[in-house]
Amino acid sequence: MSPLPPDDGAPGADDATPWDQGFEELLRQMLGADADAALRELRERGFDPGALAGPGAAGADPQLVQHVLAQVQRLLSTPSDGPVNTGVAHDVARQVAVAEGDPSLTAAQAREATQALSVAELWLDAVTDLAPSGGRAHAWSRSEWVEATLPAWDALVAPVAASVADALATVLRDQLPDGLGDLGGTGSPELPGVGFTLPGQTAGSPGLPGTDPTALMRRMGSAVFGMQVGQAAGTMSREVFGATDVGLPLLDEPATVLLPTNVAAFADGLDAPAEEVRLFLALREAAHARLFTHVSWLRGHLRGLVDAYARGITIDLGELESQLRDVDLTDTAALQGALSSGGVFGLQNTPEQQATLLRLETTLALVEGWVDEVTAAAALPHLPHAVPLREMLRRRRAAGGPAEHTFASLVGLELRPRRSRDAAALWARIAGESGAAGREAVWAHPDLLPDATDLDDPAGYATRRETARAEEADVDRALEEIFRTAGDDSDDPPAQGTP
């Protein structure tokens, strides 16, 4: 264990070492919700928690110190729940969601939202062959949206979080304050500057579990990512109108959702009446829900592409080390800020990554374009302001919001349909040539989905599909001929002399 600086008297603020200054904050991070009560109890009895970092702690009441350290030990002995600390993510998301107010919904708000979703289903029946999702219609507060969708966001960032945790452990292993790395050793169980052992321990017994430098860095990385996920999810809860705004399925069960508080805030100041805005947004939500429910492969396809892209991301260790060079390791907010720059993600130049990104962006655009086209077809006969509302939603979706930018810094990926207008034009052309049934038939299998070439040239889509079908038919005929010839040869009598 590294020696501590000599105690020449009560140090002033200028004499404190970085370890002295950061130890109380480290205790706060470790103690969580109990931190203020535990530290207040220490101060009321005349004991400075910062003295735990120096030899002056030997004179403190051992029972008081043990009270704090027992809670630290309990926290550190709890197994990590993965690369994202879901508890931190949940707490931060709830705090951010209510930061600008999140009043409970009135009965009138809930009724208006669910009625709008019911009307939307009736209007969609006239323009698409995809049936309603069959799930419940919900009116949610922001906090309820967080509770329902946070597991999906945790899973989304988990692959990158694991990579960042490994990188943090590599870069910061040698940057921990002197003595902290010894807490997980098997030698003396004494803490730095504390001249007694923990209750139930003897000399030579293990110290606090799970606090070797690598494990501590992984835990810090998990907490930092939890903070980022929570910040993004909480911010997004103030922006979204339902459960499908980002183009990815966030719910495991079929359902349609509206957030009346956000819908009302969006409608405020628009020329369109609030009821029209509510119905238009309900149409988009219900259309998304139909697509994700009845195109059974789409949910797994999108999540698989996101996961494949995320797992292929590399971490720039040099950039990460530069970002963290002057960061106080006891300050998780500073760690979060360093990791949020986005520069820690290495450039993705591999053909595999480029191909995955292109497929993901194209699929997101096709989903958004289909919803845009179907919603417009359903709204035009009923809503006078359908055209300006469509354009406003297009621009809003293309620009993204603060939460989407935060997730981009988390996973190196912007979940925005960059080519949704091209996709909407393609779906409109397919419906014009083949009807709604022909348009929906394209979703029957992922191999039938249009690609980037079709978005570039919607007019040539039908010709390319006919050419592809003709080529497939030629291949099928050739295979049939090969199998028929092989079968005929097997029926010939064996040659003379053949046993």
Structural class: mainly alpha
| Main sheet overview | 2 strands, parallel
Strand content bin = under 5%
User: How many β-strands, per DSSP?
Assistant: 2
> Whole-number radius of gyration?
30 Å
Instruction: Give the ordered list of helices and strands.
Output: HHHHHEHHEHHHHHHHHHHH
How are the strands ordered across the major sheet? 1-2
Question: How far apart are the termini?
Answer: 85 Å
- Low-confidence parts, pLDDT < 50 over ≥5 residues? 1-23, 51-61, 71-79, 178-211
Number of structural domains: 3
> Mean of residue pLDDT?
75
Count, helices: 18
Could you say which overall geometry the principal axes of the C-alpha atoms support? globular
Helix proportion range: 55-70%
